[in-house]
Specification:
Structural class: alpha+beta
Strand order of the largest sheet: 1-5-3-2-4
Order of helices and strands: EHEEHEHEHHEEEH
Radius of gyration: 18 Å
Number of strands: 8
Shape: elongated
Length: 166
């Protein structure tokens, strides 16, 4: 599984706080787990919020996620817990790694072409470009594909798991 998110490091915490972040919401993040190691710890993503209400609403939406937690930057106990979490578990932030789309496209090149050809039934010529971008919503990574007037947003996992032959 391609993981487009940047690892969260402890030194980033103060920068977030300096920018006005008042809360973080932790949620499970399947792509953050080491794919080849079944014993690897679960991965998480920390989403930062500058408004308490937005953090609480996001947290409430995750009611089915057993890994969800909310942390407030003005509570020392919460900040200690975040630092422990970051130090002991794969934790990512809601910021994409540099050149995430380019890297994903390289990794998924053949699967992406097969998906476009067989699943979407789009037939771009060699001169045509299918625009590709990544979007993360509620811990799920989506691929946006655009070809001429056609546009689709699909879970990246659907492209990765496709079993087409070119």
């Amino acid at each position: 599984m391609f993981n487009p998110l940047h690892i969260f490091e402890v030194q980033f915490l103060q920068a977030f706080i300096n920018k006005g972040v008042v809360a973080f919401v932790k949620q499970s993040y399947q792509r953050g787990r080491q794919a080849l190691d079944p014993a690897a710890p679960k991965g998480y993503v920390l989403i930062h919020f500058e408004k308490l209400l937005a953090a609480q609403q996001y947290y409430d939406v995750l009611k089915d996620d057993p890994g969800r937690e909310i942390f407030f930057t003005d509570r020392p106990g919460d900040m200690i817990r975040i630092k422990e979490l970051i130090s002991n578990t794969p934790v990512f932030m809601m910021l994409k790694i540099k050149d995430a789309e380019i890297k994903a496209r390289k990794v998924l090149d053949k699967k992406l072409k097969a998906f476009i050809e067989y699943k979407l039934n789009w037939h771009p010529s060699r001169q045509d470009e299918v625009l590709f971008s990544l979007d993360v919503q509620f811990g799920e990574v989506y691929a946006k594909l655009k070809f001429r007037s056609k546009e689709i947003k699909v879970k990246l996992a659907e492209i990765e798991e496709a079993k087409y032959v070119l």
